[in-house]
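Aim 2, interim progress. The first record below pairs a target sequence with its structure tokens.
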Amino acid sequence: MVKKDAGVKIPVLDKDNYFHWKVKMHLHLMSMDERYVDCIEKGPHVPMKFASRVGLLDDAPDVEIPKLVSEWTIEDVAEVHKDKRTMNILFNGLEQEMFDNVINCTTSKEVWDTVRTLCEGTEQVRENKMQLLIQQYEHFHFKAGETLNDTFSRFQKLLNGLKLYGRIYQTKDSNLKFLRALPKEWKPMTVSLRNTKEYKDYTLERLYGTLKTYELEMEQDEEIEKVQKKGGSVALIASVNQLEDDNEEAAKATTSRASCRSDVSKGKGKMT
């Protein structure tokens, strides 16, 4: 469900998909004004001024203090008002039940933090959830019956969940973790990749694309072997070989789709 703000759709919170809403709302605020994100993370803008310290030496440094409302400039008023704009966007992104919990909040940061606590739990609960995800990461492994795509999707979802809690692994570490999680039939390829320096700098999507190409080649070899065992003709074997180019294109397309799925979380770092 979505609402509109000046013609732009506002994501509406579904408590069962809070993390998705959190990412969408963060991006929505960022796209409108980066200062809106500062409002939910740091609080409203407070106009400041420098004043001399009374009773101190003339060369004592000035101290920064809040301005009186009567001293606000037009620019100050505009900056302070951005917190109200942010609150309005957040309020329109909440259903009635959740809105009732934040109706008395006075700043957008208070609204954001309250919704976060209601959906994620307290700081202790969030810490426990993060530790659980870390354990899942440390013990991540291929599951029987999974395809490469299944394992990749599960691993990518795990990394995204960790990132939302502020836990980000270096690319070389997550790549190595994924390679080590694959079953023994992948060992020739994983060892080959680990012996190169370049794989440490691969994005997870590029690593997946490389492995996907290898998977398609293995499947093709198996098909050829089956045909040969059945005494298949040269023409039939050639027909199997003809699939190679199509398989490579399929691998590229799959990698492209995987990259699109992860774009929403790239470059955001920790979101509070």
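The second target in this work package is listed in the same format:
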Amino acid sequence: MTATHPFNSRILLAFDFDWTLAEDSFERLVTLMGFDVGEWKSEHYHPLGKSGWDDILAKFEGLCRMCGPAGRTIGLDEAEEAGRTTRGFPGAETMPERLRQVARDVDPSVTLEFAIVSSGYLDVFSAHPIAAAFDRRYGSAFDIGNDRRLRGVKKMISHPEKVRYIQALAKGIDLGGSNAPSRTEAEIPEEELRVAFDQLIYVGDGASDLQAFGFVREMGGFAIAVARDGEFAAEDEMLQAQRPDALAGPNYEDGEPLFEILAHAVRSHASRIALRRLGRDG
């Protein structure tokens, strides 16, 4: 055993998608199907939630209940078109490469890995150009028939499960398969971690991100919140331990507060990696 902590040179940045990197992609699908988002929320989505439906299931079920009487069906083509045409936030598509340069300026050995970990529907948001800039993408998924129609929901990432995905990414646990991620509570030696837990950054916008905020901050990483209209959407719901480190509006362009906050977080982790690399024993 060496005198110093083992280290690796990878930083993981995990992001929610809807209202974090872009506007709401599922609301865009509702609009694309020819329905009013306000009516979908008030007549279907919110009532289903109040009657005990899971939030993720209620979104799709509510849209299906509008499509039936209107004689419309939802297909993969519509889902992907909704994803492609959702309005992305300024600078989000180029943000990963610009942050990689920030890390290289501190220590050329540092690598950044970008992941989308969202409760939203992967079949929708993965069609957005922003998603292609990320190394890994995880979300809830539809059951798709041979005719490309969306038949139901086959996989959900619940809000608390985001933490398990972040743990799995850090530990190098396989995220494939119907029951993944599994074994996330398994103890893994520090030297075998893909990403040190204090080299995590999580970016989200609301209630679905609170558990992830709390976990990342507890581990020594950074939790960053994207504000809508200058406010954090889940301020009234968070526990003290779930408060983010920083809050900024949805603009990832150079010089904007959100990008500068991310750059500071990356520099901090990169400097920690450089310190550990230069001072390692053995």
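The first strand starts at residue 10 and ends at 15. This observation will shape the mutagenesis plan for the next reporting period.
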